[in-house]
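dumping this here so i dont lose it
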């Protein structure tokens, strides 16, 4: 009896036969070959479809790029400004030192001439180099650049206060210095002024220059002038002793206070030596006025 197979039944029969033959061939294959086939089928089943990662839209990425471009441009401009400020501060330091050296050329015979030249040079420092510094800092975050310009400002304060003492015997205070710098600022903007910290640090350096000036005056026979310098430096040291613990940069000020104390002691010892040894040598030599040799401790006729 013949059995009629439909198309679906024949397809199932062919599939079963193919599976049976494949199973027979698999069992008859070597063991290594069967292991390789199992491994391949396992790896194929373990492969996963890659997942698509959601990315931000193009406008958001472009906005972030623009923001960081602005940040980079600001930092580049700020670094360029810092370099210009450092250069201006260096020029102020160099030319202020020239003013100080000019003051130390003073003697009994050329005092007015030397001080007039020093004041003229100091005015040039203000009009040329301080003005350039003010132009760079005004309208900017100048407080971020203080370490770049502070050395030059301190040196300028030192030179200005030294000239003021030599001409009038008084201290040039912070208000007077800032009033001199006021015309350099743009009237439409907030004026740029020297802060208290830089003024005090510059004033602390002044005592070292006054000590050198006093020693020079003693060697030139101006004992009273040297004693006046000694009293002035001693008063500055006493006042700064009260202010130093309250300052932010106390470590820097502490080192300056140590140097200041040494300057005071040198002036006092020099004046004391003149009074003690000067009287001895003047009585021996018969000279009553010339004590220029007394500081060295030897007679002019040795």
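and the seq i came up w/
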């Amino acid at each position: 009896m013949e059995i009629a197979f439909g198309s679906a039944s024949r397809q199932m029969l062919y599939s079963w036969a193919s599976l049976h033959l494949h199973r027979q061939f698999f069992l008859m294959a070597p063991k290594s070959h069967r292991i390789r086939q199992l491994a391949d089928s396992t790896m194929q089943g373990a492969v996963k479809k890659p997942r698509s990662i959601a990315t931000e839209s193009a406008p958001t990425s472009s906005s972030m790029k623009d923001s960081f471009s602005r940040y980079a441009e600001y930092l580049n401009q700020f670094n360029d400004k810092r370099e210009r400020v450092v250069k201006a501060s260096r020029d102020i330091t160099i030319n202020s030192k020239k003013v100080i050296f000019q003051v130390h050329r003073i003697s009994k015979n050329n005092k007015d001439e030397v001080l007039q030249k020093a004041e003229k040079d100091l005015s040039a420092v203000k009009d040329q180099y301080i003005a350039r510094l003010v132009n760079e800092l005004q309208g900017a975050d100048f407080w971020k650049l203080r370490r770049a310009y502070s050395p030059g400002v301190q040196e300028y304060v030192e030179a200005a206060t030294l000239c003021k003492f030599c001409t009038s015997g008084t201290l040039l205070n912070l208000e007077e210095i800032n009033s001199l710098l006021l015309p350099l600022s743009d009237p439409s903007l907030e004026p740029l002024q020297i802060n208290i910290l830089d003024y005090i640090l510059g004033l602390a350096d002044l005592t070292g220059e006054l000590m050198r000036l006093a020693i020079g005056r003693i060697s030139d026979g101006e004992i009273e002038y040297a004693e006046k310098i000694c009293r002035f430096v001693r008063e500055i040291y006493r006042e700064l002793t009260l202010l130093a613990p309250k300052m932010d940069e106390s470590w820097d000020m502490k080192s300056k206070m140590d140097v200041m104390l040494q300057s005071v002691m040198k002036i006092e010892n020099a004046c004391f030596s003149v009074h003690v040894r000067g009287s001895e040598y003047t009585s021996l030599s018969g000279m009553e006025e010339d004590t220029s040799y007394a500081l060295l401790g030897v007679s002019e006729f040795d």
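The CA atoms of residues 245 and 279 lie 42 Å apart.
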